[in-house]
Structures are given as C-alpha cells and as structure tokens.
Amino acid sequence: MGSHPISATEKDLVVIGTGMTGMAAALFAARQGFDTAQVGIMGQINFASGLIDLLGVHPVGSDRIRSDPWTALGELAADEPGHPYTRLTQDQIRLALETVLDFLASAGLPYHCESAANQFVLTPVGTRKVTFAVPRSMAPGVRVMADRKPCLIIDFKGLKGFSAAQIAGRLKDQWTGLRAARVRIPGTRGEINTENFARSLEPEQNRRELAAAIKPCLKDEAALGVPAILGVHRTGQIVADLEHWLGVEVFEIPTMLPAVTGLRLRESFESGLRTLGVQFFHQHKVEAVSRRSDGSWLLTVGDGDGKNHLGAKCVILASGRFLGNGLYADRTRIRETIFDLPVRQPAGRSDWHRKDLLHLKGHPVNRAGLATDMHFRPVGISGMPLHDNLFAAGSILADQDWMRQKCGSGLAIATAFGAVRGAAATIAQGDAEK
Known about the structure:
Number of helices: 11
Order of helices and strands: EHEHHEEEEHEHEHHEHEHEEEEEEEHH
CATH architecture of the largest domain: 3-Layer(bba) Sandwich
CATH superfamily of the largest domain: FAD/NAD(P)-binding domain
Distance between the termini: 22 Å
Structural class: alpha/beta
Shape: globular
Strand content: 15-25%
Helix content: 25-40%
Mean pLDDT: 94
Number of strands: 17
Low-confidence stretches: none
CATH topology of the largest domain: FAD/NAD(P)-binding domain
C-alpha cells in the first residue's frame, strides 16, 4: 500500500452509498460535526416506497405479522443473536429513527408513526403492508382502511402499474364501501411520466384542473385514495388543496417502483444534507481504494469525465447488495466489490437457494453479506476486524433478510447510526493520539 504522492480532498469520513443507509450515515456524521463526503451512483433510493419499516415479521417462516415492532425486536435479539439489530439498544434505534424523521420533516417531508405500534397501509395491488412510519400524505389511508370508510380509489389513464379496479376488486368482500374510477387528466396523452406529472402539480392552476377532473367521479364517499404522485416538494399543500376543493379526505397509495416517493426522499435528503455541509460525489463510482502510511484511506472516484481523490480518516460502506452493486455473484461465489472483503455465504452455489421458489423462510443467499463486530467493522474468519477505520451498514450486512422481516429502512437507519457511532470513537481516539 505505501505512501501516495497524490493531492486529495481530505475528509473525516466518506460514506460510500446513496441509498437510505448512505443518506442516513451522512446525516448522522454531519450532525456530529464531521467533515463528510458521500460517494456513489444515484438510483438505488429511487426504488424506495417511502415507507419506513422497523420490524414487521418475526420469526421468518411463520408469516406472523407483528403489530408491536419493539416487542418483536426483543424476541429477535433472543432468537437471532447475530442479526445486525442486536448490535444496538432499542433506545439507540429509537434515537436513530427520530433523528431521521425529524430531519425529513424539516426538509419538507413529514412522516407519521405511532410510538409503539406498526401501521398497515394499502398497496397498489390491494393488499395490506405492515410498516412503522408512513409519509403524512399516506397516513389518512391507514385510518380509512382500518375503519372501512366509504372510499373512492382512482387511477389515471396512461399510468402503468397502478389499477384502482384491481385494488377495489381484491377488497370488495372486506370493504363494501370501496369503489374504483379512472380519471383522464386534461392535456395528457399516452403513458404518464410520473416524475413529470408530479412536478406539474406544483402550480396551483394544474391542481385545480386535476380536482375538476376528479370531482365528477365522487358520489357519497368520505375519502379519496390516489396514486402517490401528488407532487415532489409540495405534496402536503397539494393534498390540502384537493381536500378543500373536493370536500373529502385525500390520501396517497404507494405505486410500483421506481417511484416518486423515492425521488421525494432523495431530494429531501440532498437539500438537507447540503445545508449541513456534506459534499456530494454523486454519479461517481469508487474506482480504487488503498490505505496510506498513516492508516487513513485514499479513494479514487470518477464520473466518466474525470477523477477525484478523497482522503478519509474513516469510511462507511453502505453500497447495498446486488441491486446497488455492493455485492456481486459469479458462478462460484459472492464477493464484495470495492474492498474485496470476505462475504459470509453458503459453502457452495448449490446451497444458495431452496427448491421451493416461494419458501416461507426465504433462501440462504438472502442472508449472505458482511459479518461485523459490535462496532460495525467488517471482520475476517477469525472474527477480528479487518481494519479499525472501515465500517459497514445496511443491506450489505450478513445474517438478516430485510425483505421478509419487513425491516429494510429501519435496518438501514439503525446500522448507519451504529457505524457512525463506531467511526466517531475511532476518529476521537486518533485525534487524541496526535
């Protein structure tokens, strides 16, 4: 590794990854006063539903939906002592969630949650989804569905992946007051681009035209459910205007991914983190990493047009799994793509999957990832950390199945908090030794 006579932008901490984990890690680091940079190809967070799960199913395989995520977390710690959640106390997990939710509210994206209970939201295929926190624009739908209030669900002609008729048809035996309608938006032709449509609702005149198109569909309903494409930055105002003009409660329903909900998260995080001084190297790929003679990291990042060199006292790896290219699977093994860290995985490829595609316990490959110590430092076979100033967080971690456990965003936020906490201790120790 040796020394590198390369001029680099020096940072306390570099976060690799631009999904929920990377955004949360950058927030926690900046809030602690660390000079922070975030690196990675944008796009992963665009696949966010906007829902923040904590823990919705435990144990996996029982298909047991949990109404109290905190009790479930206690059981998880006893049943799966290797799960990444067990590296944090429940108080730390609460603090991490509260910090992110407060930050998003200040950035114009408020959420609703119950302190000790999960919520159930309507999905675009007419099922119920368990989650912990929902965007405020979706919150009325939780109550409307629970109370089975008379409700109209609409979709828009040209919008793919969302069918009001499918939702109403699936729930007709359980929700007798539910109807469906399709609305044609004046001035739209062919397929609706959801981002363009959402941004088009920022001017008030366009919102009035939308309300005028919807109003003839309403009868005696008390509520209106719409696809979650009501604006990007002014969703609260758009919902309030529609409620005023239509005289009913309005709520959003998540859409198929990628979605406007992910765009809202991305732009809210970016605007808020920028004010905290985080430097972005978005659309930059990490091309090389090495340790310098003083133990700090040197990262070479590029965007196709040029390269930048970043020096970092600590690095947090939040690059995700296969979708985020944090992990890569060839015909024989799974590998980590940036530092070539050892990946905990089944012994052979034949052990990756079960014979039943829809097996309730999922597939062993889903729990492959990086093993870490209690400070979220990746470890080798011996169980000892490979580097004292390299940390990992999020879905790249081993011994969890975020999709089946319904804990994706909660896991991302909590482990980002833990990784930054570990990095802070390392930086403080290094500063004290100088």
